[in-house]
Specification:
The complex is a heterodimer of chains A (about 475) and B (about 400). Chain A is mainly alpha-helical and about 475 residues long. Chain A contains 23 helices and 8 strands. Among the domains of chain A are: about 40 residues, no CATH class; about 55 residues; about 150 residues, no CATH class. In chain A, strand 1 and strand 2 form a beta hairpin. With about 400 residues, chain B is of the alpha/beta class. Chain B is built from 13 helices and 12 strands. The chains are: A mainly alpha (about 475), B alpha/beta (about 400). Chain A: InterPro entries: DUF1800.
């Protein structure tokens, strides 16, 4: 007989630190003591398995071709076709990359690493049309997800995706572009109010010359770097980018800012200052070791307080990944995953802006909630979806090109589409102990505590399969 | 917010009373009937960055013809509005609207330090932020949050679409997205959905679960209200066969059937015309103009035009000089259209774009888009624009 208390704690841990847990694993881990389970969680997430979808060689060839085409003024028809072809290929590969990330989260055996990657994906929010750059940034976030925050920060800052997105490519001696310097402090490290406009100006000068070359590799261009004296947070020197990052990390406000964001992502939308302080101190004292902070969090008693269990609204990614992972879903037309992300308001690799997705209650409005409540029956029962969603602004050029000459191209006589997914029910049912009642299944699938309404809705004469579809369609399933 | 407040703001006493007939007509709504000045705002978004210079064409300026050798519209084809500017020939349907005095064109609307990324600039227009500021709520959403006397219902703002735009999301309140009121009504009357709501008092709390239930209840009540109010209405007007016109037809149905909604949001996309612009933009402008003309005439015939204000924006205009692919690239300031039966200044509101004084090839803005929003908030929606836009913007004299 497993300890019920430990059962719920481990379930909570794996829902927050990962994307859920199978009943079999849950039973197994519930027998260990909790600290051992946390160690096991961190241990199993040591392995870094990067996404290797975008072909390095092919992308470099495209980059070079693109650079050549963009520097020309008058293109021949042949060259125009080539440019369009490259854009089309890149859009296609970008969608494949998105699906690769989602599939990785669904299938990973390093759940904490993937969950942290998702966290950093939102923290270092970035859009880039070039899938090679986007993949590279995603892999940097994965490789350093549990390591040193300093290494992560430096590598992100040097990633072509970010250099381009925040205009550091245009940041040069005598003509500074402050975009990167500002977001580095406002959104990535210190938070608003902990620096002055002067600090931004001086750090922007320090990052001049941080660029990428035609091959898409980081390069420090000395001749474009402003090597004059800078004053940054009262320190004077011939600073270069990494010095600025060091000075920023010396400030405990950085540890505090990251700890707060981690807390809001993993624990509760409403910050608890005392708990955040504990995390920030651990983080700072460990020289910004991310795993150390995470371990501190997962082994703190408050992490398992009732107010922190089953009370967070799942992000669309957590919702879709969790559901697919739980029921071993395969998507025969994975494109639908993109449509769902976009309709639910979290199209991965396409954050609304550099501040990332606001999260919490902003995920939910009438249409997104109605859709969330329908998705389980669509995915698990292969239902029909009559939800077309909006075009992404970045896709407008493609839409403009594909518009036919008729004026009713936009008429709403679109064919209905199916989600076309398969849940592996036999496999799911096999993970459950023999004789599990629908009520016990409900208790397993939902994170919030069951109330009388749910217990009365779940009757013992229903099969496990229909119970599961019903439970995952409830508003309570939106919480973790 | 305390529990009492929360319950009050949902507009019902408790969820249990959800399906009793009295609920269909909440007390507040009846009181509102007595407010005679019930005004509607319709926001039309053209996504992709519409080329304003080939929409309202500065045909009186030679620079236009010099910079747009292969895509300029010939003077003889242009629907001339004054000596300097005229409409794209695909917008013929709007000539009558203009001549009736139902249309105002505001030139050169933009903001400082313009961003040329679709996503970011759309974000700025929808949230009403500065270009270096990131807001997670939209300008209409914050209007809903302000909880003014006429904007406290969950159906105060409706977007005729499958999903809700950021513009419509506030901190505590959000608009509702629906393409088809009957479909939403069916979904919220699904036995499972109803069973989730019935006799559920224990969830009306302030936490996230309470928020989910509150959203469900409001969706369900709005769906009933919208469906029951609008289902009997039959439009006598004919609309062109396009998705955009269908959206406007739905809005007209809502307005004409007396829905107490104040803000409607619709969009038309495909304006990112980098390549072979003439045909593509022409089709879209035709759809836009024909849909809009039908909509305005429909409102007029229902005596609703005087109570309706329509604005049209796009996230940016395009560069003055065309590119090598017979298209245009991302630019900055752009014109906005305003329609309604009670416009103070009709026709062209301000000076045409100055094509000789450019900022590295781009138009300089004359008016901040938040002055336009501010004018609407102050003069049409009766709230103080500083409360919504985070600082006071000077209003303009178009309404």
């Amino acid at each position: 007989m497993i300890a019920k208390d430990n059962f719920f704690k481990v379930k909570h841990l794996y829902n927050r630190a990962g994307f859920g847990i199978s009943y079999t694993d849950l039973e197994k881990l519930s027998r260990k003591n909790l600290e051992k389970t946390v160690e096991h969680l961190i241990e199993t997430s040591q392995k870094d398995d990067p996404i290797a979808l975008v072909n390095d060689y092919e992308s470099k060839r495209q980059l070079l071709a693109q650079a050549g085409l963009y520097s020309k003024k008058d293109l021949t028809d042949e060259e125009k076709k080539m440019r369009q072809q490259i854009v089309r290929e890149q859009n296609e590969v970008s969608r494949d990359l998105n699906i690769a990330f989602v599939n990785k989260m669904i299938n990973t055996d390093a759940p904490l690493r993937e969950k942290m990657t998702l966290f950093w994906h939102g923290h270092f929010a970035c859009r880039n049309n070039n899938p090679f750059f986007a993949q590279q940034l995603n892999n940097i976030q994965r490789a350093n997800a549990l390591g040193s925050f300093k290494t992560l920060l430096v590598e992100v800052s040097k990633a072509p995706a970010m250099l381009q997105y925040l205009n550091n490519q245009q940041n040069r001696k005598g003509k500074p572009n402050e975009n990167f310097a500002r977001e580095l402090m406002e959104l990535f490290t210190l938070g608003r109010g902990n620096y002055t406009e002067q600090d931004i100006k001086e750090s922007a000068r320090s990052f001049t010359g941080w660029m990428y070359d035609k091959d898409g590799s980081f390069i420090f261009r000395k001749n474009l770097h402003d090597d004059g004296t800078k004053t940054f947070f009262g320190k004077i020197g011939n600073f270069e980018g990494e010095h600025i990052i060091d000075i920023i990390l010396e400030k405990p406000e950085t540890a505090q800012f990251i700890a707060q964001k981690v807390y809001k992502f993993f624990v509760n939308d409403t910050p608890n200052d005392a708990h955040i302080k504990e995390l920030a101190t651990t983080f700072y004292n460990s020289k910004y070791n991310i795993a150390a902070m995470m371990k501190k969090m997962f082994t703190s008693d408050w992490f398992y307080d009732p107010e922190n269990v089953g009370t967070k609204i799942k992000s669309p990614a957590e919702f879709l990944v969790g559901l697919s992972r739980e029921f071993y879903v395969t998507y025969n037309k994975p494109q639908v995953l993109i449509q769902l992300q976009s309709s639910l308001g979290q199209y991965l690799f396409n954050p609304p802006n550099v501040a990332g997705w606001p999260g919490g209650q902003s995920w939910i409005d009438s249409s997104s909630l109605m859709l969330r409540m329908r998705i389980p029956s669509l995915v698990l029962n292969d239902g029909e979806i009559d939800f077309s969603g909006k075009a992404d602004p970045e896709d407008e050029a493609v839409i403009a090109l594909s518009r036919t000459a008729t004026s009713n191209a936009n008429a709403n006589n679109k064919p209905k589409s199916y989600v076309n997914a398969n849940a592996d029910w036999p496999k799911f049912l096999e993970t459950l102990p023999k004789g599990l009642t629908p009520l016990a299944l409900t208790e397993f699938l939902l994170q919030p505590k069951l109330n009388t309404k749910i217990t009365s809705m779940v009757s013992d004469n229903k099969g496990l399969r229909s119970t599961a579809v019903e439970i995952t369609s409830m508003p309570e399933y939106q919480l973790c | 917010m305390n529990r009492r407040n929360f319950l009050r703001n949902t507009g019902f006493v408790a969820a249990g009373s959800l399906f009793v007939p009295a609920f269909m007509k909440p007390l507040e709504a009846m009181a509102l009937d007595e407010l005679s000045l019930y005004k509607n705002l319709v926001v039309v978004q053209l996504s992709g960055g519409n080329d304003g210079l080939n929409t309202v064409i500065p045909y009186g300026n030679d620079i236009y013809y010099q910079k747009r050798k292969s895509i300029a519209i010939k003077p003889e084809e242009i629907i001339k509005l004054n000596d300097m500017q005229g409409l794209n020939p695909n917008m013929a349907a709007l000539q009558e609207i203009h001549d009736q005095g139902w249309m105002t064109i505001i030139n050169d609307v933009g903001y400082p330090n313009p961003d040329r990324s679709h996503f970011r600039s759309m974000d700025i227009w929808q949230t009403g932020s500065d270009s270096n500021q990131f807001l997670s709520t939209g300008w209409i959403g914050r209007y809903l949050d302000s909880n003014c006397q006429t904007c406290k219902f969950p159906y105060t703002a409706i977007e005729v679409d499958d999903s809700l735009s950021l513009a419509m999301k506030g901190q505590t309140k959000k608009g509702i997205a629906l393409k088809d009121p009957a479909a939403l009504f069916r979904n919220t009357n699904d036995p499972f959905f109803k069973s989730m709501l019935q006799n559920d008092k224990e969830h009306l709390d302030e936490d996230n679960l309470g928020y989910l239930y509150k959203t469900m209840i409001e969706t369900s009540s709005s769906a009933s209200y919208i469906q029951n109010t609008s289902k009997i209405y039959q439009s006598k007007s004919t609309y062109p066969n396009s998705g955009f016109a269908n959206q406007l037809k739905t809005v007209s149905k809502f307005i004409s059937s007396g829905l107490k909604t104040r803000v409607y949001y619709v969009s038309l996309s495909g304006f990112d015309t980098h390549v072979n612009q003439i045909g593509q933009q022409g089709n879209l402008l035709k759809q836009y103009s024909e849909g809009m003309a039908a909509f305005l005439k429909d409102l007029k015939s229902n005596n609703k035009l005087d109570d309706t204000l329509v604005i049209t924006f796009s996230e940016f205009g395009r560069r003055v000089e065309q590119n090598a692919s017979n298209g245009t690239d991302h630019g900055t300031a752009n014109n906005m259209f305003v329609f309604g039966g009670k416009l103070k200044k009709q026709g062209i509101f301000n000076a045409a774009p100055n094509l000789s004084d450019l900022d590295t090839g781009d138009l300089k803005y004359q008016l901040d888009f938040r002055q336009v929003y501010g004018t609407i908030l102050d003069k049409w929606l009766d709230v103080n624009n500083a409360d919504i836009l985070n600082k006071k913007f000077n209003t303009l004299d178009f309404i």
